[in-house]
Amino acid sequence: MMKKILIVGAGTAGTIMAVRLSRTLSRKEWTITVLDKDENHYYQPGYLFIPFGIYTKRDVIRKGARYIPAGVEYMLAEAEQIVADRNRVKLKDAREIAYDILIIATGTTIHPEETDGMMENGWRENIFDFYTVDGAEALAKKLRDFHGRKVAIHVAEMPIKCPVAPLEIAFMTDWYFTQKGVRQNVDIDFVTPLSGAFSKPLTSKVMGHMLGERKINMVADFGTERVESGKLVSYDNRSVEYDLLITTPTNMGDALLERSGLGDDLNFVPTDKFTLQSEAHDNIFALGDATNLPSSKAGSVAHFQSEILTDNILSYIRGKELKAAFDGHSNCFIEAGYGKAFLIDFNYDLDPVEGTYPFPVLGPFSLLKNTRLNHLGKLSMKYVYWDILLRGIPVPGITSKMGMAGKKIPRESS
Question: Is residue 322 assigned to a domain?
Fold first, then answer.
């Protein structure tokens, strides 16, 4: 009898897993089904550029079916519950799907309603997100007509998808108003629950210096209790006033995981940080933004995890021990405006450092340096994503395990 792998979620992580497994598993023994409730696939890093008129919806949305391999079933339906002890997924329309192996790739979404007053005091009027297509488009319209003085770039709480994105939106907002010739009339606050600009010390120092150079005021250790009309209020009664709030609301995993008893307090799947196997069920695996791992919630992470998870699923099928191979590898460009960007590369054990990437000496990209070439690399990612990464095509020099060559690693970290 044929056995089934069911992948819930057809975003970056789910699509790449479908591609890799379709090339690896015997079609005589295994079927693969990808389940998703949305027919569209989104290039989420592109949302950053929409508010500033650089990208449009057309740049970031394509039909998901284009990227599902031949021979893989692509099912458009919404899951109601995962019944793990019966190896079943119940759908909203009352159908059930049986599986032998389940891969959870349901991602994460924003929840502005988790912050008191955020939805009631100007949502999509003078409070905007940029983590959704609709939010990014609405923010673009607001910025074109903005005549206020105070702008707050805000993070409600951690963890969040793409942890550098709020910094990018701050740098880009500075650039945007400078291009319009009105920067001197705009005050920008960067409001974060972290003690610095970023969670990694050296990167935090570099980004904090850049914020200072751009005259962006950093408000650190700000635990947001509530949003009032034109004001953020912290648990320790500090406040930040704004005419425009660009927020990163609370991020949570899919409500499906709460309904299924498979999520933590934020609906992320408790997952082994090295093998990507669920901590609760041996035949359930998770990757990408859906996990509770301390690695970044970023597309690069899903890409690196997919290689390791494919090997571990094969080991599981063959009854072999899973490899504790995922090292938390993540890399991302940090758009800084003015035609330049940074690049960071790190894992569980090594924070971002200076150096070259992906090759020593040759680079061509510079780590923790603000360069024109990094900016061009950031823009090229749209084409790399659609035409290379989603199709599972290897990129020379870029591997799931973080390389040390070309990095200026401090002695105590080596």
Answer: no
